[in-house]
């Protein structure tokens, strides 16, 4: 929801109304996260199959092991590419709001940790930025 003092989402952040660099819609963000989660589960499942070969089916499920490749995707993706694999596939990226520079290792780790708590991602402002974005001075924009 956009307040009366701002005409569009992202205006008060200095972002364009539409096109490249404008705030990414929630649908694209959710799709990117789902893609990243599925890929992470498949990677973790592959490793747990190899490690637990011959054991019961429950021990071969990826479980919480899928958080490891997901965290690596987010942290390394933000540091080196400004996006995760899922974000790349749907055409969005993560930027710093206050400066024209990379997210940096501390912010990448902090943002990933907050995202894993899930609640910060569900609490968002009038621009559609989650609490994890606000606390790390980041935004997800169209590429």
Key features?
143 residues; single chain; mainly alpha; 6 helices; 2 strands; two-stranded antiparallel ribbon
Task: Describe this structure as you would to a colleague.
By secondary structure, the protein is mostly helical. The chain has one domain. Helices cover 47% and strands 7% of the residues. It has 6 helices and 2 strands. The protein has a two-stranded antiparallel sheet. Helix 1 crosses helix 2 and helix 2 packs antiparallel against helix 4. The longest helix is centred in the first third of the chain and has 26 residues.
Summarize this, please?
This protein is 47% helix and 7% strand.
How many domain units?
1
| Main β-sheet, spatial strand arrangement | 1-2
Count of strand segments? 2
Going by helix content, strand content and strand pairing, the class is mainly alpha
Kindly report the average pLDDT value. Answer: 87
pLDDT < 50 runs, ≥5 residues: none
Q: What best-fitting shape do the alpha-carbon axes yield?
A: elongated
User: What is the makeup of the main sheet?
Assistant: 2 strands, antiparallel
The run of helices and strands is: HHHEHHHE
Helices, by number, come to: 6
Helix content: 40-55%
Rg from alpha-carbon coordinates: 17 Å
Q: Indicate the proportion of strand residues.
A: 5-15%
Query: What is the CA-CA span between the terminal residues?
Result: 22 Å
